[in-house]
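Quick note —
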Amino acid sequence: MAEIRLAEGSPSPPRPPRRHLLAISELERDDVERILGTARTLARSLDREVKKLPTLRGRLVVNLFYESSTRTLSSFDLAAKRLSADTMSVRSSGSSIDKGESLKDTALTLGAYDPDVIVVRHPHIGAPHLVADVTDAHVVNAGDGKHQHPTQALLDLYTIHEALGRLEGLRVAIVGDVLHSRVARSLIEALRLVGAESLLVGPPTLIPRGIEAMGCSVTTDIGEIAGADVVYVLRMQHERMLAGAAYIPSLREYTALWGVTPARVRPGQIVMHPGPMNRGVEIDPRVADSDAALVTAQVRSGLVLRMAVLYDLLTRGPVAVPTAVEVA
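Predicted structure written out below.
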């Protein structure tokens, strides 16, 4: 194959600006609808005998995780592989991070491999932004502290739409430890983008002051979840709580006052949980294992949604999806 060269002295073609997924606030409703539409198209591939698609062959996706993860890490890794991308996963444990290497130096090291996408999970707010500043890769925020977790919010929208057939006008009750939850913050913003309402339910010590400014309503009365279409349950985020702080008198009292039990869930509601679940604390096992619970569906949605995010960042939209991925 003949080598293609630019004429001497001719300017290099302009490179399109890198796109990232760092926060829901950076998206418009059209962006959300495009990504969800791409996920629906890609979901058809999961029912085929051969599930691997050639769409991102030759691309490199790096997963850089400074926090423990099962669902998010495994789904990003599998999503990249299902699209035929190469993957590399780096955890803080067992790497140079254990030796005191800074996030910037780790990012620069990984950037030397010329990755197309770096997926970052980090306990500190803003860490994915730093990686985006010092590398040429597209960066996806897989959770930074208690700030944002945009792909979780998008997969939750996808799950709700698949179950109920719409998003506009729905009411979602988010129950539990909102104060320390990046999932809650991203979900509130995402629901608002698509015309749905969010109601926060929990003890006053676990609801951030002034969070109503994000466009949600707040109550401490667990009985208010009866008016919701979706009950979204959050666990206690002990790893992000201040040492020695007493946010609740006891887990037993928390369960009695705000636990999601069969008696508190009405027929027709769906129940969701981002995981991991603490059965018998924030959610009764009978609810977690009921037909109303979509926890497993969320995991499946996480795969196709993260496939869609990678596809969207690297190919700019879903127009060519049916041809590119050879989905009938």
